[in-house]
Write a structure and sequence with these properties.
The chain is α/β, with parallel strands linked by helices. It has 21 helices and 17 strands. It is elongated and about 115 Å long.
Length: about 475
């Protein structure tokens, strides 16, 4: 009896506490709520209602949901839809202050079946909608880049690893396509890591020797005393420690195909003389041999150094330089063709996804950082960054935190040509910015009218600046 009495007393107290704290309890249930009668007249709203709908409680209570809908405080009215459909409804609303709201409204019926109350609970989903829109935009951008890559591959029938969309690389690939038809010696120049080996393979692949071997030797990776035997081979017993059967050299192995000598500037003057003779006479002697060996191969050389300067310094033979430099293709750094950065990044990410059976992407913030970064290591550095990011990223999309720290520092986000220590005056800095804008616009549009339209200049002004910053420099390079 005593236990039952205490239980009854506890329930009465509890019921009173619940009634006294009804408003506080309802405020804790959801972000905000609204209760109307069966005709849509508002009876009660939560304290957060004012913040969400930008309307005072005292103004809302007593109004009908139809009136507030007409005044634009929410659209559409979910209470009006419940009155019409007589069932629970969940939907999205737009408020007068452009907030996105997810609302659920439930009817409560009289015994006679008429609606007595309608109770709705709302949650502000504006930030979630914004995130969805950003994700959709980024996804569309990735799909666009992917489509561009596929179209470029189809259009140019190029090796899948040669990805580009910049005008500079388009011109280089057109040159490569023309040069590939002939056996002329090609000298590939450009900073380390820009993809000289890839392009040498492309010349080979598009040429008449595509069915033959492609032999690649990095001259800087082999000590000079061993480089000669690698290139020319040797006969049995040519020197102490030599293979007793002799060895075929790389020049011989390139018979009917293409030989790429990378970092050609690192070859000694003595070896340069032998290479020149092999190029001129299309024959050579193995080390220790007396019988000339005839060879038929195409020669492509590559370097990240200024060979013309090496000639003037006496470290490179002038006659060999002219033999190698029949066709010179200078490959710009990644910083000079920023349009290629993201297509390349997506390409390498696609390869990593296939390798590890993943489906990672990039956040817009990561895309922005990669686009602004100067990439001193060029394409080779980009490959390494993407591989690293895939391995360490814990999320579906690669974000800035997955990129190397040096890419995020302040110095990486500004063009190194405009760093304070590298300029002598304000006017020089202004001229550098102007030059980059003109070159970037000309790379994209290719005409003075296109540059003028993009930069809002008169066409004569655009033409003069193109002449000053681009055409004049090209003429100077041609004279060299």
């Amino acid at each position: 009896m005593k236990v039952a009495h205490l239980r009854g007393y506890t329930m009465k107290v509890l019921e009173k506490e619940l009634k006294d704290n009804y408003d506080k309890i309802m405020d804790a249930v959801a972000d905000d709520f609204l209760i109307s009668d069966g005709s849509g007249t508002i009876l009660l709203v939560s304290s957060d209602f004012e913040n969400v709908y930008n309307i005072e409680k005292s103004y809302a209570i007593g109004k009908t949901v139809y009136e507030l809908e007409e005044e634009g405080y929410f659209n559409p009215s979910i209470h009006a839809k419940v009155i019409q459909n007589r069932k629970k409804i969940t939907m999205e609303q737009k408020t007068k202050n452009s907030r996105d709201i997810l609302v659920t409204a439930t009817p409560i019926f009289h015994n006679d079946g008429e609606i007595k109350f309608i109770v709705s609970f709302s949650r502000d989903i504006t930030e979630m909608v914004d995130l969805q829109q950003k994700h959709s935009k980024l996804k569309h951008q990735v799909e666009k880049y992917t489509a561009e890559i596929k179209e470029l591959r189809r259009k140019n029938s190029t090796d899948p690893d040669v990805v580009y969309c910049s005008r500079k690389m388009e011109e280089i690939m057109e040159t490569i396509t023309r040069v590939a038809e002939f056996d002329a010696n090609v000298l590939l120049t450009g900073p380390s890591g820009v993809g000289k080996t890839f392009l040498a393979r492309e010349i080979h692949r598009k040429g008449a020797r595509a069915e033959g071997p492609f032999v690649n030797l990095n001259c800087a990776a082999i000590p000079d005393n061993l480089l000669e035997s690698e290139l020319f081979g040797y006969v049995k017993g040519a020197f102490t420690g030599a293979n007793e059967k002799g060895k075929i050299g790389l020049i011989e192995m390139a018979e009917g195909g293409t030989l790429l000598l990378d970092e050609i500037s690192e070859i000694s003057l003595a070896l340069q003389t032998k290479i020149l003779k092999a190029i001129q006479e299309k024959e050579f002697l193995r080390i220790g041999g007396i019988t000339p060996i005839r060879v038929d191969f195409r020669l492509i050389t590559a370097t990240n150094k200024d060979l013309k300067n090496s000639v003037s310094q006496g470290s490179f033979r002038e006659d060999l330089y002219y033999r190698l430099n029949v066709v010179n293709i200078d490959i710009p750094s990644l910083k000079e063709r920023r349009e290629d950065i993201i297509p390349l990044a997506n390409h390498f990410l696609e390869k990593e996804n296939e390798k590890y059976d993943l489906s990672k992407g990039f956040t817009q913030e990561a895309v922005d950082v990669m686009t602004r970064y100067s990439w001193p290591g060029n394409v080779r550095e980009l490959i390494n960054v993407i591989e690293r990011a895939v391995v360490i990223s814990r999320h579906e999309d690669i974000d800035t935190g997955d990129l190397p720290h040096e890419m995020l520092s302040a110095g990486c986000l500004a063009d190194e040509d405009l760093m304070i220590d590298s300029i002598s005056s304000f006017s020089e800095a202004i001229e550098k910015v102007e030059k980059e804008l003109i070159k970037s616009a000309y790379d994209r549009y290719g005409t003075s009218s296109g540059v003028a339209t993009k930069l809002k200049l008169s066409q004569p002004t655009a033409y003069r600046k193109i002449q000053k910053y681009i055409l004049t420099e090209e003429k100077k390079r041609e004279k060299k």
